[in-house]
Amino acid sequence: MKNAKHPEPIDLLPYMAKWAALAVIVAILAGSASAAFLFSLDVVTAWREAHGAIIWLLPLAGFAVGWIYLRLGKSVEAGNNLLIDEIHDPKKVIPLRMAPLVLGGTIISHLFGASVGREGTAVQMGGALADQLTHVFRMAPSHRRLLIMAGISAGFASVFGTPLAGAIFGLEVLAIGRMRYDAIMPCMLAAIVADQVGLAWGIHHTHYLAGAIPHITLWTLAATLAAGMLFGLAGMLFANATHGLSDFMKQRIAYAPLRPLIGGTVVATAVWALGTQRYIGLGIPTIVESFAHQLPATDFLGKLAFTVGSLGTGFKGGEVTPLFYIGATLGNALAPLLHMPFATLAAIGFVAVFAGAANTPIASTVMAIELFGADIAPYAGLACAVSYLFSGHTGIYRAQRVAQAKHHRHIPEGMRLGDLPNYLRQLRNKSGGKH
């Protein structure tokens, strides 16, 4: 640079100092919020498991959550999609109410037995709390984007105990085919510190044992490719079914609180009819089981149906832990067919279904390494890449943009995933159905 008074590394020092301080503040806020959330989640999960009959109050709990969001949460109901939209097209600071509303809504959902996750809650709390610093430090729109991304990374990292995957998730989740490297330092630092903040509060994350990873052979690679295709299709099915049910309910039922009331009634009745609570809540005990021995081959379908029924009718929470459950149990079911160890294919499915549904193959691969060790990296990387391709241009986050299409299909750069079906429909109509 001709006009620079100092060498570039020297000029970067004030920038580094500023973003290091902001990232640490974001990390403390997000990590502390995640810790409070995880402690609360443990308490309500233990209560629900000890008092199984509480499931019959799930319809009323759903109505209450729907009513609260109708009265107080219309501006933040879009959840993760609101964060992604604000990063791409900044308009106004995310209301602080997003954090307590999603926290309370998720805790209620888990207490009474909905099948929802926790990532959405942690990410929304992290993003909303981070964005409040916009007022304090009078951040420009371009810098505000980085702040929200750091909050997303911090929330994800602290709720799962995977700091590197959390950092990359915040960079990768915004757009298909492109990552925002301008935020890499604040996202990385915020994720690492947020994870340490959670640990300092006494949070303990579940440890999964993937066992001995088989040596790479022609067969193990072929089996991983085949499994990756099925994992991607499972991710696509989950995303399409959840969005489809949500759209159907909104079209048929105008009064929002009635949607989770109906969904809660169906879920509670299904739990009673099946005589098991195996498919509600986070389902972590079943995930752990999937690494140890063969499970019923239908477990992944059960979790998929219960989660779609819960999230699609308006219960609050995340999608990611249910996706871990679906992936691990699907991998468990495929293991005998593909002559792979149960634990290995469960671990691969754990991350690969998430990779396809969220369109985040890099973050998912790094998560596999953090959770299961470096030996699984080749298999996880391959399965996540294939799953990402086979899930198509769908995903659990409708606000994701298409920066680069996954294959030869032409899609305008910057299009939201949520707008893609209408675009393709119009394209087919114009071409007489040839596309």
Molecular structure report:
The chain contains 18 helices and 3 strands. The protein folds into 2 domains: 10-200, Orthogonal Bundle (Clc chloride channel); 218-390, Clc chloride channel. Helix content is 67%, strand content 1%. Strands 1-2-3 form a 3-stranded mixed beta sheet, with no helix packed on it. It has 435 residues and is mostly helical. This is Voltage-gated chloride channel family protein. InterPro entries: Cl-channel_core (IPR014743), ClC (IPR001807), ClC-type_chloride_channel (IPR050368). Keywords: Membrane, Transmembrane, Transmembrane helix. It is a multi-pass membrane protein.
User: Percent of residues in helical segments?
Assistant: 55-70%
Instruction: Report the sheet with the most strands, covering strand number, pairing sense and barrel closure.
Output: 3 strands, mixed
Q: How much beta, percentage-wise?
A: under 5%
Global structural class: mainly alpha
The general outline is globular
**Rg value:** 21 Å
The named CATH superfamily of the largest domain: Clc chloride channel
Taken in chain order, the helices and strands follow as: HHHHHHHHEHHHHHHHHHEEH
Subcellular location: Membrane
GO molecular function: chloride transmembrane transporter activity
Membrane topology: Multi-pass membrane protein
Keywords: Membrane, Transmembrane, Transmembrane helix
